[in-house]
Model the fold of this input.
Amino acid sequence: MGGFILIMGLMDRRPRFQIKPGRFSVGMIMAANASDVWRIITDTSLWPEWGPSILDVQCSNRFILSGSKGSVKTVMGPSLAFTITSLKKEREWRWAVGGIDATGHRIIPINDDCCMLFFDMPIWAIPYSIICLVALDRIRKLVNSKKEF
Done:
């Protein structure tokens, strides 16, 4: 019975929220290993598929590295320059968009087939968490589609 409860808990689709000094995070459990989720969130060719506010990406690297630079065309119209400001391989990356610190993307492995993916943002950007929830759901669908990426 205990294993059943654990599995049901891991497949829980409800979002998780965290508040730390100055930051707010929203996350979801992904029924996939951390490497597969990492590949999706660092592959700039996939950003328009899961990022509701992104229409197009131009980047110096298909898979981002610390210091990668590029631009994103947003649904609001303008293209904005971005820089990957920090990256811890298969764990976390952050960026600045239009010169402003934007979202962080953080993976917490649970086991070989499951992880948590969080987006974090400054407290003042909490309304953007709605966009992040849509992105999290799209990432979950991408990783579960067994699509070659």
Notes: The chain has one domain: 14-144. The helical segments are 2-10, 34-42, 47-50, 129-144. The CA atoms of residues 75 and 133 lie 17 Å apart. The mean pLDDT is 90.
